[in-house]
Specification:
Blueprint: E1 4-11, H1 18-32, E2 37-44, H2 45-51, H3 55-71, E3 79-83, H4 88-98, H5 103-107, H6 110-121, H7 133-147, E4 153-155, H8 161-177, E5 186-188, H9 218-225, H10 246-251, H11 256-267, H12 272-299, H13 301-330
Parallel strand pairs: 1-2, 2-3, 4-5
């Protein structure tokens, strides 16, 4: 029985926070340990420059994201772990796919439509004002990422479902027009993935400014946790889990029995300050070893680079084989 191939990309435009860890990193690392799965994970730095035009941010984020995944248990022996920009075959495939992709398909992409709508609402005469080709063509590059390794499944959030469907459309068009070379990828939506709430009860997000940093020390983590909103109930007053985001964050780091015990303590009047100490202790206990590993990696980035280069070498071997078939299928061949 052949293994199921699962591919995930991580954009390099920020430093991961606790919400990224709970919602994406931790479950993906666990899933990669499944012996029936062949896992591919890449740092999507070319995707990063679509919106981020700060070179140092791209560079620093690439290091931080790579170190984060490695520190959190990603095993490069089990997962093909590489940087997108180290696989030039992806960019060549991107161009070949661009040449067969209907513009009308790209016109329907959510990000492009949102930009056009924003221009209309701002009374811009040019509906494409401010739209760069990176944004417009983004789904084709994502398609090349997926098809380059013939992924069976692509875990994505609901906002990315359309892009995987576009990848299927483009793959189907190529297969029909030239040769059956590409697997039609399936969307994988994990309904059990936890969307961690932030300090204010909304989804934890950098855009909301409500995150808890992943790699701070114990003391700074406690300070962040202390900012979680609570009500004015005094110590001794019964409290319910839905009265503060604190409970949902605690639940993400606890077993069911620990969560039940915490619920009981709240009902018995546990002070919010004490509850925050218990939460910070939970977070710090789980992240103690990963933080040590993260600091080791970022102190010597050459370790990260060596791992990424080894992953790229492994990925490129396969990418070259498929790209040679693609080139031949479209007529780009040696003269004999």
């Amino acid at each position: 029985m052949s293994k199921k191939r699962v591919l995930t990309g991580v954009t390099t435009t920020g430093i991961p926070h606790l919400g990224n860890y709970v919602g994406a990193i931790r479950p993906a690392v666990r899933a990669a340990q499944n012996p029936d799965t062949e896992s591919f994970l890449f740092l999507a730095d070319y995707h990063g420059i679509i919106k981020c035009h700060e070179p140092e941010m791209i560079h620093q984020s690439t290091q931080a994201v790579a170190a984060t995944w490695l520190a959190c248990g990603l095993n490069p022996e089990q997962t093909t772990f590489y940087r997108q920009s180290d696989i030039p075959e992806v960019m060549e495939l991107n161009w070949i796919l661009t040449c067969i992709t209907a513009k009308g398909l790209m016109n329907r992409a959510h990000a492009y439509k949102a930009a056009v709508q924003a221009n209309a609402e701002n009374n811009q005469e040019d509906p494409d004002f401010g739209v760069e080709m990176g944004l417009f063509s983004y789904p084709i590059l994502m398609t090349a990422d997926i098809l380059m390794f013939n992924a069976n499944e692509v875990p994505v959030g609901r906002d990315q479902i359309q892009h995987v469907e576009m990848a299927r459309d483009i793959a189907g068009r190529f297969n029909h027009r030239f040769q059956e070379l590409f697997t039609l990828p399936e969307v994988k939506i994990d309904e059990n993935v936890e969307l961690l709430v932030g300090l204010d009860g909304r989804k934890m997000s950098k855009s909301y400014g409500n995150t808890i940093p992943l790699w701070e020390n114990d003391k700074k983590t406690q300070k962040s946790v202390n900012k979680i909103i609570t009500n004015m109930k005094e110590p001794g007053e019964p409290k319910q889990p839905d009265e503060s985001p604190l409970f949902e964050i605690y639940k993400a780091f606890s077993t069911p029995s620990e969560t039940a015990a915490f619920t009981q303590m709240l009902a018995e009047g546990l002070a919010w300050g004490e509850a925050k100490k218990l939460l910070a202790a939970k977070i710090n206990a789980e992240l103690a070893e990963p933080r040590e590993r993260y600091n080791e990696l970022t102190a010597d980035p050459s370790q990260i680079e060596d791992i990424l280069q080894a992953g790229a070498q492994k990925a490129r071997k396969e990418a070259r084989e498929l790209l040679n078939k693609v080139r031949d299928a479209v007529g780009i061949r040696p003269l004999k």
